[in-house]
Specification:
The chain is of the alpha+beta class and about 70 residues long. It has a single domain, classed as Ribosomal Protein S8, Chain: A, domain 1 (2-Layer Sandwich). Helices cover about 25% and strands about 25% of the residues. It has a three-stranded antiparallel beta sheet with strand order 1-3-2, with helices on one face.
Length: about 70
């Protein structure tokens, strides 16, 4: 079953950005699989939730955005 993402497809990431704060370690990392056109939007959501983190977008073998990494170290 696909995730329901709301009108822009990002509701799941907004929810995760809040809920993960209660479980991620202060020096932890989180990885999010994303749609090919969601890199900058998901990165912005995570940067807002974790302003001190290094947030990066990584491409798949076809050059499409595929993973957002939140590094709290």
């Amino acid at each position: 079953m696909a995730l329901v993402g709301g009108t822009d497809g990002l509701d799941f990431y907004r929810r995760l950005s809040v809920e993960i704060q209660d479980i991620i370690r202060a020096d932890g990392m989180a990885f999010f699989e994303i749609g090919y056109d969601q890199g900058s939007a998901v990165a912005a959501i995570m940067k807002k939730a974790f302003p001190r983190a290094k947030v990066s977008v990584h491409a798949d073998l076809n050059g499409n955005d595929r993973i957002v990494v939140v590094d709290l170290q």
